[in-house]
Write a structure and sequence with these properties.
This protein is mainly α and 154 residues long. The chain contains eight helices and no strands. The longest helix has 24 residues, at 71-94. This is Sigma factor.
Length: 154
Amino acid sequence: MKKTTGYDTLEQVVLGNRDGDPYAFALLVHQWYLKLCFLAKRLIDQARMAETIVEQALVALWVHRQELEEVKAVKRFLFYSIRQACLECIRKEQGPFMNVQLMEYVAFESLEFIDQELALAEVLRQLQYDPIENLPALCLEAISPELAAVGKKI
């Protein structure tokens, strides 16, 4: 049976998470996971490592949930956690020869910047997602038999 959320706004979801509601936490993960993965991947250009960093940041969000009562605070927490982990990854990879422009970019801290980056990550995610490519083979064949026969996607 599907549980109804009982949450009408993101602010309510954040408060539910703060109060330890696992369903509210799951809603936050679904809201931000892909955006945060795209953000992390832009910083370190390693998809699996970016996913791991985001997963660790989300686990830390759950651990520190009682300290975070506002959407802004949650966004900052996640962005800073991911940024710091990405910086550490870059330091390990590049050592003393770190790209200065990348470091300046990663060090940017304003909430407006965070919002812009999350919005950009969502746009990029949507641009890269092609629902046709994710259709099961029979569905693809149903809408375009000639392409399915040669193994091409629309």
